[in-house]
Amino acid sequence: MSLSAKQKTTVKEFFGKMSTRSDDIGAEALSRLVAVYPQTKSYFSHWKDASPGSAPVRKHGITIMGGVYDAVTKIDDLKGGLLSLSELHAFMLRVDPVNFKLLAHCMLVCMSMVFPEEFTPQVHVAVDKFLAQLALALAEKYR
Amino acid sequence: MVEWTEFERDTIKDIFSKIDYDVVGPAALTRCLVVYPWTRRYFGIFGALYNAEAIMGNEMVANHGKKVLHGLDRAVKNMDHIKESYCELSQLHSDQFHVDPDNFRLLADCLAIAIATQWGSAFTPDIQAAFQKFLSVVVFSLGSQYH
Predict the structure, then answer these.
(1) Are A31 and A62 in contact (CB under 8 A)?
(2) Fewest CB atoms within 10 A around its CB: which of A21, A50, B12, B82?
(3) Can you give the pTM of this predicted structure?
(4) What is the rounded CA–CA span in Å between residue B37 and residue B136?
(5) Chain A residue numbers touching B29 (CB-CB < 8 A)
(6) Total Cβ atoms within 10 A of residue A85
(7) Which pLDDT score is estimated for A64?
(8) CB contact under 8 A, A52 and B31
């Protein structure tokens, strides 16, 4: 389910529009991940506070969104572009890939909250596909 | 039996008292058909579904979206007996419509996004968690009579 040229453009344009709010959306998305799917907190047991809205969660959400934005610039070759991030997730973090889907869903919820007009069904499908491709690229080195 | 906190019960009742069925139902089903195009396999009789614009303008999709959203009402009224409330509907979806139950999960995700679009920041993480828990129980119940 790879992105068409038009969908790549749609993704770049929407992420461009989103850029002023990207930190908020990143922070909020990770907060929602731990709120809606509490089992994901298992990856953050080294934090004093992994509850929704906590400082470490928000900070890390911003970091993750930064990675997503970087991936937009590498949209034409996600596997190649995300090689080292994939190695990090595969050998060090060892996040079960099912969680990429859960976080993607939370990102989509946040995008639709902040940009209800712009996040049309057409934008939704393009961004959903992009995040799915991103997840695949991140899982590339797992086994 | 599912255990619900008071917050969760109140949240579900609140969501469904405020929801605009005529907007959210169609929006959710439309998104499902656009974002997960394989779901169109179940709606051959709806006519033109070949692209996003066709789906978004399709009156049968809109009407069916409202119907599906109202299908959640019985769960709202019967939160302690959701599985039983959906016995018949589950059999129907299995034996008559032959719907892959994973599609219920996809529609539930689209419903969360449709509500988020309407409510904005009022759709807090806690409310989202309660809503998605509720939907996952309905999704499970709808798949429960498959054989």
Answers:
(1) no
(2) A21
(3) 0.91
(4) 22
(5) none
(6) 18
(7) 97
(8) no
